[in-house]
């Protein structure tokens, strides 16, 4: 009964915390709400008229939704780069940021699931994936593995921080014997969610652009670059607009993780380019379309070359210790890297896999306004969820929220 009383008090105090704040906070939440409502309106049009309102066709059947899904799986997996040193290796410098990283993982996973629902056309078809009712097809289908690992990782990233914050709310220390096993499991699970997503593409034999042994490792490298880069940017905002103190050395340690991952990601990119262009075959046509255009079609050229320019520039900046330790320059480099990997793992990976088609036809893909607005609405939802989680966690960690006996 006492735990239920504490839980009720925590919920009440959390609601009070997230509904009160500065004028700037309310403007931010109002802006996110407005974007979500616009996204919901566009999604209602998609529900009414079907996926024909998007830029997807029978030639290019995955577009902006799956591109964002693929990228956000990596952002969610990146929380492990804070979980492992904090909970497993006992690095106290990461302790300040780990709950923020896990909150970001929760928001990213919720967005992942929302993008999948949007891409399927609507929630009414989800019953197909319910075991015993629909055709779940486990363990043969990689898609079912993806469903399991994503929802399992979401549960881990909800339960571990909740237990720690629930104890801190009562003014008590969390028992390591309770959360450490889950933290260790989440380390392996984080690797699993991104590898399974990579295997989902690798297993499609008819799409030679994805039949690459480096796809899984590169997914991980890019995830451990873009995810912590986003965490650094979020921590910078939290330091500026809240009382939650985050030391410079914490951000600089995370920056080292970003630097190493970005360098590995760049090396793998060079390896892929060598494989595609040194001894090209007819299976290299997708890569040619992406990087140089094919038969006069080159809609992705501005995107991919922008991504490569940003990627190389950011990695060079991060490589030099003097530049990386300048926080203003670090924030710019992290933003550049985040955008570059978003493009690479989105338009640079998904769309070329469908081009050219089975008979050599090139049907280019351009997202419609409906798709873009639904996408922005889902991103706004993720930011809204993260803001709520972060504000509550910060209140508990700064001891402003405490259970009143």
Tell me what the structure shows.
The chain crosses the membrane at residues 27-46, 66-85, 97-118, 147-166, 178-201, 221-242, 254-274, 300-320, 329-352, 372-396. Belongs to the NrfD family. It comes from Urechidicola vernalis. It holds the Pfam family NrfD. It is a multi-pass membrane protein. The chain starts with a helix and ends in an 8-residue tail after the last helix. Helix 8 (215-241) packs antiparallel against helix 9. The chain is built from 14 helices and no strands. The protein has helices at 2-18, 23-49, 64-77, 80-88, 95-120, 142-169, 176-202, 215-241, 248-277, 285-291, 301-319, 321-324, 327-345, 369-397. The radius of gyration is 22 Å and the shape is globular. It has two domains: 1-203 and 368-405, no CATH class; 216-230 and 247-366, no CATH class. The protein has 405 residues and is an all-alpha fold. Helices cover 70% and strands 0% of the residues.
Defining key terms:
single chain; 405 residues; mainly alpha; 14 helices; 70% helix; 0% strand; globular; DsrP-like
